[in-house]
Design goal:
The complex is a heterodimer. By secondary structure, chain A is of the alpha+beta class. Chain A has one domain. Chain A contains six helices and 15 strands. Chain B is mostly helical. Chain B has two domains: 110 residues, Rna Polymerase Sigma Factor, Chain: A, CATH 1.10.1740.10; 64 residues, Winged helix-like DNA-binding domain superfamily/Winged helix DNA-binding domain (Arc Repressor Mutant, subunit A, Orthogonal Bundle), CATH 1.10.10.10. In chain B, helix 6 packs across helix 8. Classes of the chains: A alpha+beta, B mainly alpha. At the A-B interface, helix 1, helix 2, helix 3, strand 5 and strand 6 of A face helix 2, helix 3, helix 6 and helix 8 of B.
């Protein structure tokens, strides 16, 4: 594919319109020459753009040099990573410090949701029928809860797992050899197994630099995300501007499942200053579009709880389902019960409070509700994928 | 970008000729490839693009703000291109398919890859691929220009590239 892109770009030079077309149009419209120069007297926009261009060119040269020195890749999200403020061990969000780490997080989290969507189903025929004892209405509700939660479980496991998201350079090969960059991103789940996703991409430097009080970094990607045997076209944007100490950014990572269907993760940041200290809270929102229609939005953030002098992390998800016009709030907390890894869930399903425990047992999730009902569900992406259809094989 | 474009159009309507540079820079590739798809050669496409801008700027008061200026401009350009083709067919009665280069239906300087693109791609795929891959716009910008969801632009760009790859492989070019 890259060959086609290169061919189009190089051959494009031969067919693109000449600059004289614009000048001829301006001349025929009476807008050319002296009139325009007078309008730009004292510099004007053109001069400003030129000055900015010099700054951007200088910054781009520094960036290129940095890339050449191998500073950016393999990127270090983990223990070898750049010295970032590690506020809470296990908090994956604090590891996201630049474009590479943002895209790595995007690949892992979106990959986890996509794998859950394609991989979740009852562990056995009829397993959605919850076991006794409960009334019919209660069972129907709980089945609905499970369907909703299960698609986010792989992400919950990633976010609650020990260790960091790690990434290392992967040489694009085979069908993906045309891409300039590749990275394999790995994250653990709650049973300690590692799950990997591969991202092949081109970088698009859309500008960046430093000019007085303003600075910005703008670096987008286009490529593909390989999750198991599935391949999703992806694109991402990482742009950050700082002016007079105020920061604005536009960060997103999108994976397409069809022409008008996609899932997009965006970073949102809220800052609060108290006693001279500024605390930043990060929220990542996942929006699912199907056939151009926004069907669901999920926001995820970490909550911390002090217990016995230790800080324990919890994951809070707020889900808005636009089709059903419902809202859910789910608080996930990882614990060990009799040596078994479990997740306690405190939820509110559209006004109905529900508590249950999820037992992670190899290839399945065992749900146990407070009313005694239970259900087993397949656990997607558990890390023992032995698929033989890896499109990356060459 | 669209907001700024609309602002510049309003400035132009109010007689500020400096706005033209911005308007041209943000729209010319869209107009050019819409016309190039129909005409197949650079020289004719440049001529028609020139005429399209003159016509559009002279009737800029006809453009209704907020209704996608680029699409309006492309419609003017495509109509001019179609008229040009009709006129050319009347002026030179011959078989364009047999001697396409002689009669200007294909230009000898047009790289083969663009002939292939015009042959195998649908018009919207062609335009999107050219804007993304040749003109160098970001897909978000192309989506704004063409009034399409960004997902549609991404998908059609990928589909177009796949079709090109398949066709060129079949022909032994890549």
């Amino acid at each position: 594919m890259k060959d086609i892109k290169k061919l189009l770009k190089s051959e494009g030079e031969k067919i693109l319109p000449d600059d004289h077309v614009k000048e001829n149009i301006k001349r025929d419209l009476g807008l050319s020459g002296e009139e325009m120069r007078a309008a730009y007297a004292h510099g004007g926009e053109t001069a400003v753009r030129r000055r900015r261009g010099i700054w951007f060119a200088a910054a781009a040269a520094v960036l290129v040099a940095a890339v050449a020195l191998g500073i950016t890749l393999p990127l270090a999200l983990g223990n070898n990573g750049p010295a970032g403020p590690i506020i809470r061990p296990g908090d994956k969000f604090t590891q996201i410090t630049d474009a590479d780490t943002f895209y790595a997080y995007g690949a892992v989290s979106v990959g986890a949701i996509l794998s859950s969507e394609s991989g979740t189903r009852p562990a056995a025929a009829g397993a959605y029928v919850l076991s006794a004892p409960a009334g019919a209405d209660s069972r129907a509700d709980e089945t609905e809860y499970i369907e909703q939660i299960n698609k986010y479980m792989a992400l919950v496991e990633n976010l609650l797992s020990d260790g960091n998201i790690r990434s290392e350079a992967a040489a694009p090969s085979g069908e993906y050899a045309g891409y300039d960059y590749g990275m394999e991103v790995t994250c653990g789940n709650l049973l300690g197994t590692e799950i990997s996703y591969t991202l092949y991409y081109d970088k698009i430097f859309a500008g960046g630099g430093y000019d007085g009080d303003e600075s910005e970094t703008n670096y987008a990607i286009e490529g593909v995300l390989l999750s198991g045997g599935d391949v999703y076209p992806v694109e991402g944007n990482y742009s950050e501007e700082t002016e007079d100490g105020e920061r604005e950014n536009e960060l997103y990572f999108t994976a397409y499942t069809a022409e008008n269907s996609y899932i997009r993760v965006e970073q949102e940041e809220e800052s609060e200053t108290e006693d001279g200290e500024t605390e930043r809270e990060r929220v990542y929102t996942y929006t699912i579009f199907e056939d151009g229609e926004r069907v669901e939005r999920m926001a995820v953030e970490y909550e911390s709880e002090e217990e016995d002098g230790e800080t324990e992390l919890e994951v809070l998800m707020t889900v808005r389902n636009y089709r059903e016009d419902t809202s859910e709030r789910l608080l996930f907390k990882e614990e060990t019960e009799n040596g078994e890894r479990v997740i306690r869930v405190d939820a509110d399903f559209d006004g109905s409070p529900v508590r249950f425990t999820i037992y992670i047992r190899g290839g399945s999730y065992h749900y146990e509700f407070e009313d005694g009902t239970s259900s087993d569900q397949n656990r997607p992406n558990r890390g023992d994928d032995d698929d033989d259809d890896d499109e990356d094989d060459d | 970008m669209q907001n700024k474009l609309e602002k510049k159009i309003a400035e132009l309507k109010n007689g500020d000729g400096r706005a033209f540079d911005y308007i041209y820079d943000k729209t010319n590739r869209s107009v050019y490839f819409a016309v190039f798809y129909l005409l197949g050669d650079r020289m004719s496409a440049e001529d028609i693009m020139h005429d399209a801008y003159i016509k559009a700027m002279e009737s800029i008061h006809m453009y209704r703000a907020g209704t996608n200026f680029t699409a309006w401009l492309c419609t003017i350009a495509k109509n001019l291109a179609l008229n040009h083709i009709k006129r050319r067919s009347r002026e030179i009665p011959t078989d364009f398919d047999e001697e396409p280069y002689k009669y200007g239906t294909k230009h000898p300087d047009t790289p083969y890859v663009f002939d292939v693109a015009a042959r195998v791609l649908k018009e919207d795929e062609y335009e999107i691929m050219m804007l993304c891959q040749v003109a160098g716009y970001k897909r978000r910008e192309v989506a704004e220009m063409l009034g399409l969801p960004i997902g549609t632009v991404t998908w059609k760009n990928n589909e177009a590239l796949k079709k090109m790859k398949a066709e060129l492989s079949k022909e032994g070019v890549s």
